[in-house]
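F.,

This is the one I mentioned.
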């Protein structure tokens, strides 16, 4: 990689000469409900005259984007899992309460027989409420979404590790090799990494859309059959 500086300045200008600044943790920054877009670092020709510093800025931006995306999926996993557990737990409680209504009427003797019709009616209502909770979880894809979230976050983390080692490999070749590593090799690595990161998020979104459309179609067909 072209670089005319020597000594400590040369090490500082290399893409890996300084440890990249880590983005603040999830508790230190305001979390977005939707996955945001990070601006691409647009460098001036003057900045490219020191390619080490320019590439380091691009590396830090790409790494921070991947880490923020993985953190978003991990945070979303917590929200989706909590919502799914609430709906599933409520469905179990409503189903249990609805199933106990006939037993309560039978145990009540004469009074239970007189109120049996009301108890059975409430039993049907409670059972219907349990079914609604399960249907909401299915249509909204809460249970499946939090599992997809953790799988997507793991894919991003694995791709980030590969990118970091590939970048370190270029740095090592630049430091000990006979000729400097071309700047275009670093740019090609950055482009491939960001493209893969985008593909991972698009794949997860496509799976969610397909699952949602399938659940809505099943609900529509079921309603039509009635």
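My design for it:
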């Amino acid at each position: 990689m072209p670089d005319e500086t020597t000594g400590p300045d040369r090490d500082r200008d290399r893409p890996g000469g300084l440890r990249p600044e880590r983005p603040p943790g999830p508790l230190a920054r305001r979390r977005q409900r939707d996955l945001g877009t990070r601006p691409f670092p647009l460098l001036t020709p003057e900045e490219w005259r020191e390619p080490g510093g320019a590439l380091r800025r691009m590396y830090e931006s790409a790494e921070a984007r991947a880490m923020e995306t993985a953190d978003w999926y991990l945070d979303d996993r917590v929200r989706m899992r909590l919502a799914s557990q609430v709906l599933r737990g409520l469905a179990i409680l409503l189903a249990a309460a609805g199933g106990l209504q006939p037993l309560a009427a039978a145990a009540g003797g004469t009074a239970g027989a007189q109120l049996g019709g009301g108890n059975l009616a409430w039993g049907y209502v409670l059972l219907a409420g349990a079914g609604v909770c399960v249907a909401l979880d299915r249509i909204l894809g809460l249970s499946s979404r939090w599992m997809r979230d953790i799988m997507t976050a793991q894919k991003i983390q694995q791709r980030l590790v590969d990118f970091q080692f590939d970048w370190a490999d270029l740095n090592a070749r630049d430091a000990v090799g006979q000729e400097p590593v071309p700047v275009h090799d670093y740019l090609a690595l950055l482009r491939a990494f960001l493209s893969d990161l985008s593909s991972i998020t698009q794949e997860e979104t496509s799976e969610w859309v397909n699952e949602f459309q399938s659940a809505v179609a099943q609900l529509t067909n079921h309603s039509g059959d009635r």
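Residues 1-31 have pLDDT under 50 and may be disordered.

Talk soon.
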